[in-house]
Amino acid sequence: MKDIVVYNTLTRKYEKLETLTPGLVKMYVCGPTVYDHSHIGHARTYVAFDGIKKYLMLRGYQVLHVQNITDIDDKIINKANELGVDWREIVETYSKEYFELMGKLGIRANINPRVTEHIPEIIEFIDDLIKKGYAYVAPSGVYFDVDKYPYYGQLSGIKDKKMWNQETFVKDKKNPYDFALWKCAKPGEPWWESPWCKGRPGWHIECSTMSSKYLGKQFDIHGGARDLIFPHHENEIAQSEARFGVHPWVRYWLHTGYLTIKGEKMSKSLGNIIALKDVLAKYDPKVVRLWLLSAHYRTELNFDWEALERTKTSLERMRMTVSALRRLVEKGSPKGRLSEWEIEAINKAIDLRNSFHEAMSYDFNTPKALASVSEMMKLGNEALEKESYEASLAVLGAIEEADRVFEVFVEESKADVEPFVELLVEVRKELRNRKLWDLADMIRSRLAELGVRLLDKGKETEWRFA
Ligand SMILES: [Zn+2]
């Protein structure tokens, strides 16, 4: 099997993946600030990293995946003030929605740490940075002294100090590019006790603290959307390397490309944000997941309802093929000899499996991997036509393996109810033969309620789990 190669934003090179602990990948992905509905851009990033994780798992790695929740931030406070509610209410509403929607998309991190549950660790982190001379206390809060850290700009490639300016300039900062580690609370803002002032953590320090708490002083992969490279990830690196005396802190930095709407970045000001809940109200999460994975994670992906519609149609077809293959394999048994065509088909299934792995192992090229899956489906349909148990078994194996990454083609195992569905389909066929349409329709609609879809093709009926 080919080595896994990843594109590392830090070195701007493709590099062979070598983990700190053999067989284990420690991965941190920046999670959402929960002040509004999750949007399709969030889904893009989190599905991409879920695909990466599932491929690493398929290759035998254990993956420890940490994805945080930023549950205190200026945006949360502003939203609460705007609506005149407690900030915790905002957090509760949108974090609940986030987990619900991620669950539907098949994304579950091992740990979802929340900022407000890590205040003592954050204070300890900042305190250590002050003691080591990398941070200073000012009346408005504690700031990171960027000039003290020698590698600033390494991730973004921004070397010109004038380009480093971030956050509104506060006059008690030494330099405009220093960033807040701790912000003293203004009247009416939420606060926690600290050695410096009643206040709250800055955004960047949260991720440094929570990642090191769960993954250690160094770990393998840090991920996030491309717009986090500067300043967020640059600042995370500065803080962590300063505190832990390591370089590099994280070996591989992976970033997802933008999700655009009609070629434009989604933004509040353009009013073109597409809420994930609205997309999932119209489309099966599997369709959305497949559509998101149909683009390489680093490329720009343009949102488009028609593309979802097309994905829906092709996924339906593919799932039909897979469930027919499964039924054939479950009922069939080996003949003990193979035809010329079957030998060829089995070899082709092996080749397609290899090309799937080749695509995924080179920087997780899901669109290329999907092209192999489409070929597998074609081969599967040929195997079904020829009613070949052996070829069906080979191609089904390859599809099931690919589906450990995509998680869309194979229906969850409902094997024990299948004979009963078959029986009902048979009974319904008999009812139709006798022109007892109302009873036949009743079976169809009751099965639909139970998540079984019937598709009549002339006198025959195909079915699948919806
Ligand atoms: Zn982060």
TrEMBL record:
Protein species of origin: Ignicoccus pacificus DSM 13166
Compartments in which it is found: Cytoplasm
Residue numbers covered by motif 'HIGH' region: 32-42
Top-level EC class as recorded in UniProt: ligase
A Pfam family it matches: tRNA-synt_1e
Reaction it catalyzes: tRNA(Cys) + L-cysteine + ATP = L-cysteinyl-tRNA(Cys) + AMP + diphosphate
Gene Ontology CC, one term: cytoplasm
Keywords: Aminoacyl-tRNA synthetase, ATP-binding, Cytoplasm, Ligase, Metal-binding, Nucleotide-binding, Protein biosynthesis, Zinc
Cofactor binding: number and manner: Binds 1 zinc ion per subunit.
EC number of this enzyme: 6.1.1.16
Required cofactor names: Zn(2+)
PANTHER family per the UniProt record, alphabetical: CYSTEINE--TRNA LIGASE, CYTOPLASMIC, CYSTEINYL-TRNA SYNTHETASE
Domain Cysteinyl-tRNA synthetase class Ia DALR: 355-417
Top-rank taxon, per record: Archaea
Gene Ontology terms describing biological process: cysteinyl-tRNA aminoacylation
GO molecular function: ATP binding; cysteine-tRNA ligase activity; zinc ion binding
Family, per entry: Belongs to the class-I aminoacyl-tRNA synthetase family.
Name the UniProt record assigns to this protein: Cysteine--tRNA ligase
Binding site for ATP: K268
Motif 'KMSKS' region mapped to chain: 265-269
Annotated positions binding Zn(2+): C30, C207, H232, E236
